[in-house]
Amino acid sequence: MRRLLTPDQCRDIQMGILREIDRFCKGNGLRYSLAYGSLIGAVRHKGFIPWDDDIDIMMPRPDYEIFLASFASDGLRVHDLAGDETKRESFLKVVKDGTLMVEKLTGREMWGVNVDVFPIDGAPSGSLEEFYRTLESKRERFFRILPYYKGMTSGKACWFIKHLCKRVRFPYFHSAIFLKNEINSMLKSFPFESSETAGIYFAAERTRTFTRREVFEEYTSLPFEDGVFSAIAGYDSWLRSVYGDYMQLPPEEKRVSHHLYDSYAL
Predict the structure, then answer these.
(1) Cβ atoms of residues 99 and 159 within 8 Å
(2) CA–CA distance, 91 with 58 (Å, rounded to integer)
(3) What is the CATH number of the domain that holds 225?
């Protein structure tokens, strides 16, 4: 029987996941940093942004691949979205067993309560915009043929008809996963360790996450809730590149979660 979890219960689960990731990375010499809203939260609030409801971290691609292949912890599992053609994302999630997240608008079951882990990839310094535009064109085509994009509000027949219409309107003679693999191969084509520029390919921020690779090579520690966790030493310059004046609180009407899920214990 499902039991609806409160926001505080979800945060407690996420903190438990983060502690296990931290333990594993320290024990195996892997680099990671708090990222996005979690990094802002650590700097500005010493924990979660009060209206936020998730935890994000990032890892240089070499560390990310080792983590993906070897992370193990009782009650947790790694969900690699890069190999899942039903998901638009290409990062990974560390998920708590025995939990489930459900989209509020569609009722589609997604994954359990989790922590997001983003790879930091190299990129071409002199043609970053062109590189990004190529990635975006592939990503847009992937969205057009993605079987379950945004979920279905009714049964399998509705899904099949909608998916068939998309494939007819936007003809593409390979599977969605073939195209997704092309995107991921392109992201890995500039090795992190030998690139002058690096960042996270995530459409909402466009190229703002990309900067000098050295920014992702020096680390410090920042308080977050009841612990201390790893963060890039150049967090201020990176956050300002992505968000501008991140220390300024947004207007009250924007202090809301941007995630539309309910979370359950099973």
Answers:
(1) no
(2) 10
(3) 3.30.460
